[in-house]
Design brief:
The chain has 136 residues and is mostly helical. The chain has helices at 10-26, 31-38, 42-58, 69-72, 78-93, 99-134. Pfam families: Bac_globin.
């Protein structure tokens, strides 16, 4: 078996991101959500993700913004985030290995956990607010 190289260039990030989102788009659970949300804006999303991962892994300021708000209203829960991580790790492990590869998987896992936690928090807060308004 050939030895895989670590993520080390922008081209590696593009390969990682493109292959990951190709797999997401085909996934029965995640594909419909992403395809509905992004529709014909996939090229812009992929460009944003290249910058995001450049910033995360290479400490290059290629991304500015707040990644959580676009995800806040998506119809997702822990099952979706678990599947996202499964696809991410499987995809990346087929392409790369090394310290930055492990960093990418750790960062993705942490983001999925945080996004899921925040989405649940906001949904619970909104439900509590709705319930308190309904009470006489």
């Amino acid at each position: 078996m050939a030895t895989l190289k670590d993520i080390s260039t922008l081209e590696d990030i593009k390969q990682m991101v493109n292959n990951f989102y190709d797999n997401v788009r085909k996934d029965d659970l995640l594909g419909p959500i992403f395809n509905e949300k992004l529709q014909d804006r996939w090229p812009e999303h992929l460009q944003k993700m290249y910058g995001f991962w450049q910033t995360i892994l290479f400490d290059v300021r290629a991304y500015s913004g707040t990644p959580f708000p676009p995800h806040k209203q998506l119809p997702v829960d822990k099952t979706h985030f678990d599947r996202w991580i499964e696809i991410f790790n499987t995809t990346i492990d087929k392409q790369f290995e090394g310290p930055l590869t492990e960093e990418a998987k750790m960062r993705a896992t942490n983001m999925a956990f945080m996004f899921n936690h925040k989405i649940e928090y906001f949904r619970n807060a909104e439900n509590e607010l709705r319930n308190s308004i309904k009470k006489p």
